[in-house]
């Protein structure tokens, strides 16, 4: 990871192709590279090329010296640790979930914690905005190059690379930045170098540490080393894994409750009077399920179907739906608190995004525009796209294409519906008992599998079209581009994954008339809900799509395909080398890895957003969804970690203050889930029907006779021409049938209001709407009240932020005063304790003594302050802190600066 001199660290790698024979613009690209490198050197960076004639790909190593890093850290207003404070006001670990656990519970959870000897603890240091002219304020180690973390070094070099010009003065104003050079083919790639090998057992590196204690499947039950993830990959990726881990923890109570609801259904499955009535042979003769060829049938054929329905359609379902609605809100509120703690620990409070440079693709397209205007900031005339002539037509066209794609997804649902209608018609006329008896189950499973395959195909097409549409919009910055693409892909995938579920839950079986006047589509009868409820079919559809997506997309595609792609690149790299050397340099190995790209993290978030929708939107139909999501996420965390550590090139450690627009999507899903679950309970399940019958229409306030009450009568003589079953197709035992039954609340044929809706039907409709309104309002009021009770930032974090601000300010003032008096920069212990006592006295909080680590090598501690009994336990020292401690021990004076 160093230059050839073994001293200067490699901060970035630039890669270009040296195959000039096939490149007509080779001379121009060579000129661009030469100008670009010269400008980098003028900027203060060190560049060392690694050129071998046997390779078609050449490399340049970039190093940023201390002076350049200090200058840009000052310009970028980054926060750096100050010199004087190493003792902690409070234990930073106590802010997290693990730190607040004590006693037996903490011992019980100790196996899930990381080994502190293998993964040393990160300590929070007090920081302030860096000022180059006041270097004496900061904790600068020896050698001073280690003052800046690897992530900070990479970020600063990337900052310079994105703003360095490569064109001459007479050329375009937009000839600057490594992104443009990669876009026009001058460079193939630019990336930070991975630090060490994850396979090297003889030498430990942070990459090896992350591989062994995070990316390995053997530590699937351990917590994540988030501080190391942030240190190595940056805050943006660190926030993703922090959120994913927190979401996985939050699924534990939801999984437990879901399992209990499922067990409740199993325990009481045989005690359901409706199931008992359904299993009585020849108790109810049902009307044919199709015209002409279908015969009458006995309702007892639905016995097993009704039993399965009872697993998910029972009294516990309402409780679980209400619980999950509250769970979603509580999860988001507590995540905001966790996010605030992370922002404080990672020094992201009051963080401001730096000004983003324009995207290379935007610059290329904007340079072709014939319209120009004066930039109000720079005063230079620049080309631009007028809103009404260029942008507005593009946005309208993009919206129209999005609407068309949504209609395509709906058309796929209609196609699958037509398939289900056709396959059921065929199976119901089959003479084989196993076929017609299990026709609903076979039809539902086969249709769900076909729908899943079509979903994957449409997702592939939708992603490509969403990228094309976003490219066409010509957005200026990468942030605007990413947000627009996120919304497009999520909306399309939302419709693609959930449209069939919405159809089954809220449309199927709602518009059927009596057997002689059934509604039709494509000249075929509309589908009916078997057993009076579509909940079982919704559960089957949800389970197949949800589990199938997790197995195929999240595991097979994410694990197998990158591995195959990596092997292909390694073979291609070996074929490029004429000498067929087997030992590759670190930058050559990293070049063989997959590039994460701008869509890498977007895809990871998108998978979890779709999963969150499955867990919340239709959880009333599938209580096991949180449990399956929890198991999947345990695998997802480690597979994603393995990709980032072993299969991806190291991404630029980008900064971020939160998970961005994904929080807004999560919040919207939780609100929609309240409505969907209320409607599923009211209209899809039979819960309201049962409760209404038991409380109003039952003679003994039980469900006895419910099935008979929910079945209407139909006179077989009322079949219109061509709809009655053929005489030869009617089974012998149904030859003399006069009346058949069907699921609906309609007047009998002997009534004056023949086949019209009964009063009970209107009572049921009113009860369903009243339940939805009450459920929604009660849950919304409770969630709003819970959100109000839970502050976005915990009291402890707020207190520590205020104390840090006061302490840092006092230390800076004291240091400046000592410097003005001619003293050595730094504070004595007595000065620090004076600050401490002043702050404690003003706030009325506990003691806050800063102690010097002046213990002997045997571990005995002696405190020279007056408060000897208020000793604090100091954190483990890193190598640099231990070095300074040894120096401090050799100086017997009170003005020594200590760590």
Automatic annotation (TrEMBL):
<dbReference type="GO" id="GO:1902476">
    <property type="term" value="P:chloride transmembrane transport"/>
</dbReference>
<comment type="similarity">
    <text>Belongs to the anoctamin family.</text>
</comment>
<feature type="domain" description="Anoctamin dimerisation">
    <location>
        <begin position="2"/>
        <end position="226"/>
    </location>
</feature>
<keyword id="KW-1003">Cell membrane</keyword>
<protein>
    <recommendedName>
        <fullName>Anoctamin</fullName>
    </recommendedName>
</protein>
<feature type="transmembrane region" description="Helical">
    <location>
        <begin position="489"/>
        <end position="507"/>
    </location>
</feature>
<dbReference type="GO" id="GO:0005886">
    <property type="term" value="C:plasma membrane"/>
</dbReference>
<keyword id="KW-1133">Transmembrane helix</keyword>
<keyword id="KW-0472">Membrane</keyword>
<dbReference type="Pfam" id="PF16178">
    <property type="entry name" value="Anoct_dimer"/>
</dbReference>
<keyword id="KW-0325">Glycoprotein</keyword>
<feature type="transmembrane region" description="Helical">
    <location>
        <begin position="769"/>
        <end position="790"/>
    </location>
</feature>
<dbReference type="GO" id="GO:0005254">
    <property type="term" value="F:chloride channel activity"/>
</dbReference>
<feature type="transmembrane region" description="Helical">
    <location>
        <begin position="240"/>
        <end position="267"/>
    </location>
</feature>
<feature type="transmembrane region" description="Helical">
    <location>
        <begin position="608"/>
        <end position="631"/>
    </location>
</feature>
<feature type="domain" description="Anoctamin transmembrane">
    <location>
        <begin position="229"/>
        <end position="804"/>
    </location>
</feature>
<dbReference type="InterPro" id="IPR032394">
    <property type="entry name" value="Anoct_dimer"/>
</dbReference>
<feature type="transmembrane region" description="Helical">
    <location>
        <begin position="394"/>
        <end position="421"/>
    </location>
</feature>
<feature type="compositionally biased region" description="Basic and acidic residues">
    <location>
        <begin position="859"/>
        <end position="875"/>
    </location>
</feature>
<feature type="transmembrane region" description="Helical">
    <location>
        <begin position="441"/>
        <end position="462"/>
    </location>
</feature>
<dbReference type="Pfam" id="PF04547">
    <property type="entry name" value="Anoctamin"/>
</dbReference>
<dbReference type="GO" id="GO:0046983">
    <property type="term" value="F:protein dimerization activity"/>
</dbReference>
<dbReference type="InterPro" id="IPR049452">
    <property type="entry name" value="Anoctamin_TM"/>
</dbReference>
<keyword id="KW-0812">Transmembrane</keyword>
<feature type="region of interest" description="Disordered">
    <location>
        <begin position="843"/>
        <end position="875"/>
    </location>
</feature>
<dbReference type="InterPro" id="IPR007632">
    <property type="entry name" value="Anoctamin"/>
</dbReference>
């Amino acid at each position: 990871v160093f230059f050839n001199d073994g001293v200067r660290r490699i901060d970035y790698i630039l890669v270009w192709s040296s195959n000039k024979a096939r490149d007509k613009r080779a001379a121009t690209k060579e000129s661009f590279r030469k100008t670009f490198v010269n400008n980098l050197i003028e900027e203060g960076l060190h560049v060392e090329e690694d050129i071998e004639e046997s390779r078609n790909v050449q490399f340049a190593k970039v190093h940023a010296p201390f002076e350049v890093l200090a200058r840009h850290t000052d310009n970028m207003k980054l926060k750096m640790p100050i010199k004087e404070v190493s003792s902690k006001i409070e234990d930073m670990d106590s802010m997290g979930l693990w730190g607040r656990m004590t006693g037996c519970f903490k011992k019980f959870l100790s196996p899930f914690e990381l080994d502190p000897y293998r993964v040393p603890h990160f300590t929070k240091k007090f920081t302030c905005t860096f000022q180059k002219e006041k270097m004496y304020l900061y904790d600068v180690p020896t050698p001073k190059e280690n003052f800046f973390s690897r992530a900070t070094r990479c970020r600063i070099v990337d900052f310079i690379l994105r703003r360095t010009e490569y064109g001459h003065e007479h050329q375009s104003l937009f000839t600057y930045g490594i992104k443009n050079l990669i876009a026009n083919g001058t460079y193939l790639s630019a990336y930070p170098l991975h630090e060490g090998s994850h396979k090297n057992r003889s030498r430990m590196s942070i990459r090896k540490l992350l591989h062994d204690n995070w990316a390995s499947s053997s530590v699937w039950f351990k917590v994540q080393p988030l501080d190391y993830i942030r240190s190595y990959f940056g805050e943006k990726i660190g926030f993703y894994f922090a959120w994913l881990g927190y979401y996985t923890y939050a699924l534990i109570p939801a999984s437990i409750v879901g399992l209990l609801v499922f067990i409740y259904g199993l325990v009481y499955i045989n005690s359901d009077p409706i199931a008992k009535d359904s299993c009585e042979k020849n108790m109810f003769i049902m009307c044919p399920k199709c015209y002409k060829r279908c015969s009458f049938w006995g309702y007892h054929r639905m016995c097993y179907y009704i039993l399965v329905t009872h697993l998910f359609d029972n009294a516990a379902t309402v409780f679980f739906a209400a619980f999950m609605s509250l769970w979603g809100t509580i999860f988001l509120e507590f995540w905001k608190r966790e996010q605030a703690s992370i922002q404080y620990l990672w020094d992201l409070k009051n963080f401001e995004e730096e000004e983003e440079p324009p995207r290379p693709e935007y610059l290329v397209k904007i340079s072709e525009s014939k319209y120009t205007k004066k930039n109000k900031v720079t005063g230079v005339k620049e080309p631009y796209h007028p809103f009404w002539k260029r942008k507005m037509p593009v946005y309208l066209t993009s919206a129209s294409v999005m609407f068309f794609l949504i209609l395509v997804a709906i058309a796929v649902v209609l196609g699958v519906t037509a398939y289900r209608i056709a396959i059921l018609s065929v199976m119901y006329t089959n003479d084989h008992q196993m076929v017609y008896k299990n026709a609903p189950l076979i039809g539902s499973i086969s249709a769900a599998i076909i729908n899943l395959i079509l979903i994957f195909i449409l997702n592939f097409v939708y992603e490509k079209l969403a990228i094309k549409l976003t490219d066409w919009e010509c957005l200026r910055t990468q942030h605007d581009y990413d947000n627009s693409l996120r919304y497009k892909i999520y909306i399309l995938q939302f419709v693609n994954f959930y449209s069939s579920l919405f159809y089954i839950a809220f449309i199927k079986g709602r518009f059927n008339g009596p057997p002689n006047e059934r509604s039709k589509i494509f000249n075929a009868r509309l589908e009916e809900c078997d057993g009076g409820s579509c909940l079982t079919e919704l559960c089957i559809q949800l389970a197949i799509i949800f589990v199938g997506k997790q197995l195929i997309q999240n595991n097979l595609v994410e694990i197998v395909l990158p591995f195959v792609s990596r092997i292909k690149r390694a073979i291609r790299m070996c074929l490029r080398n004429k000498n067929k050397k087997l030992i590759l340099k670190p930058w050559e190995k990293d070049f063989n890895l997959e590039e994460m790209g701008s869509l890498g993290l977007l895809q990871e978030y998108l998978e979890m957003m779709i999963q969150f929708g499955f867990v919340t939107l239709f959880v009333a139909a599938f209580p096991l969804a949180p449990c399956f999501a929890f198991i999947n996420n345990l695998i997802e965390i480690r597979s994603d970690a393995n990709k980032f550590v072993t299969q991806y090139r190291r991404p630029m450690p980008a900064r971020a203050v939160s998970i961005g627009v994904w929080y807004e999507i999560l919040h919207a899903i939780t609100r929609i889930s309240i409505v969907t679950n209320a409607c599923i309970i009211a209209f899809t399940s039979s819960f309201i029907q049962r409760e209404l019958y038991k409380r109003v229409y039952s003679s003994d306030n039980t469900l006895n006779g419910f099935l008979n009450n929910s079945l209407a009568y139909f006179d077989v003589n009322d079949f219109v021409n061509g709809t009655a079953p053929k005489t030869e197709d009617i089974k012998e035992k149904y030859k003399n049938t006069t009346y058949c039954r069907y699921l609906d609340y309609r007047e009998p044929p002997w009534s004056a209001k023949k086949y019209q809706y009964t009063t009970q039907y209107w009572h049921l409709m009113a009860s369903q709407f009243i339940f939805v309104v009450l459920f929604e309002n009660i849950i919304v009021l409770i969630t709003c009240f819970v959100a109000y009770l839970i502050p976005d930032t915990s009291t402890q974090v707020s207190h520590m932020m205020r104390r840090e601000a006061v302490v840092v300010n006092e230390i800076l003032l004291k240091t400046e005063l000592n410097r003005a008096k001619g003293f050595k920069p730094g504070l004595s212990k007595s000065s620090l304790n004076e600050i401490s006592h002043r702050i404690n006295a003003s706030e009325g909080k506990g003691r806050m003594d800063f102690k010097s680590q002046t213990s002997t090598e045997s571990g005995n501690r002696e405190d020279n302050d007056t408060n000897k009994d208020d000793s604090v336990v100091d954190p483990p020292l890193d190598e640099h802190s231990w070095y300074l401690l040894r120096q401090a021990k050799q100086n017997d004076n009170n003005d020594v600066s200590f760590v």
